[in-house]
UniProtKB/TrEMBL annotation:
SUPFAM superfamilies: (Phosphotyrosine protein) phosphatases II. It comes from Artemia franciscana (Brine shrimp). Keywords: Hydrolase, Protein phosphatase. GO terms for molecular function: MAP kinase phosphatase activity; protein serine/threonine phosphatase activity; protein tyrosine/serine/threonine phosphatase activity. Its EC number is 3.1.3.16. Residues 152-209 form the Tyrosine specific protein phosphatases domain. SMART domains: DSPc, PTPc_motif. One of its GO terms (cellular component) is cytoplasm. The active site is at residue 175. It comes from the Eukaryota. Belongs to the protein-tyrosine phosphatase family. Non-receptor class dual specificity subfamily. It catalyses: O-phospho-L-threonyl-[protein] + H2O = L-threonyl-[protein] + phosphate; O-phospho-L-seryl-[protein] + H2O = L-seryl-[protein] + phosphate. This is protein-serine/threonine phosphatase.
Length: 237
């Protein structure tokens, strides 16, 4: 029961982003919804999750297509950017960045073969890289494939972003292109700390920047949204 639900647009972006993937089979392997194979959810629940993902993709693709830019402030105090912005001292100073969240850190903690395979999507920075700017750094070793469990980092990312804003700072959240991993974690922050629904959070970010999280990340955001809805229902009774 395999479905490849990613749009042609996402296929194009992935091929441009990861030139190391030489064949269409490799591209499809990184984009195919492996979740369907590995999940233990009943098929009916999986189908419902698929419908939710498709709904979120219509939100992402609705309206005018924004020109992809190196960085955008998507919420007061939160900037999503690409790799080049995160490594430019001049731009970081000009933006007044006090915190950096790297969602494409290199230390995957996986076996060497996997580390080597996905190293092209990593951004190699660390706290020492930003010490001369007095910027506080936090790295999350996420891989931009649909089978990666990014949700395990939702809370720690939300806490780091929230800490920056509570201190009156300005945070740069980035991955390699600022389209999938970083966008997903900012959306999760808005859901966890600002109590937005997944639709509201996506619309908030999408208004300011072109984003396109992969299907696996969208599904994990749907699951987070359902947990929040269930918790609110329980508090009513």
């Amino acid at each position: 029961f395999l479905e490849t639900q990613n749009s042609v647009l996402y296929l194009y972006l992935k091929s441009a982003l990861y030139p190391g993937l030489q064949t269409i089979n490799e591209l499809l392997e990184n984009m195919t919804c492996k979740y369907y194979v590995t999940s233990r959810l009943p098929w009916r629940e999986i189908s419902q999750a698929s419908l939710q993902v498709e709904h979120l993709k219509t939100i992402l693709e609705a309206g005018a297509i924004r020109r992809h830019e190196a960085y955008n402030e998507v919420y007061p105090g939160i900037v999503i950017s690409d790799e080049a912005t995160a490594m430019s001292s001049y731009v970081l100073r000009s933006l007044g960045i006090t915190h950096v969240l790297n969602t494409a850190a290199h230390d995957y903690g996986l076996d060497p073969a996997i580390d080597q395979r996905y190293s092209y999507g990593a951004v190699r920075t660390s706290q020492s890289f930003y010490n001369h700017l007095s910027i506080k750094y936090f790295g999350i070793p996420a891989v931009d494939i649909v089978s990666y469990n990014l949700s395990r980092h939702f809370n720690e990312a939300a806490e780091f972003i929230d800490e920056a804003l509570r201190k009156g700072g300005k945070i740069l959240v980035h991955c390699q292109m600022g389209i999938s991993r970083s966008a997903t974690l900012v959306i999760a922050f808005l859901m966890i700390k600002k109590q937005l629904s997944v639709e509201e959070a996506i619309k908030t970010v999408r208004m300011k920047r072109f984003i396109y999280p992969n299907d696996g990340f969208l599904r994990q955001l749907c699951q987070l949204d359902e947990r929040h809805r269930s918790a609110r229902r329980r508090t009513r009774y």
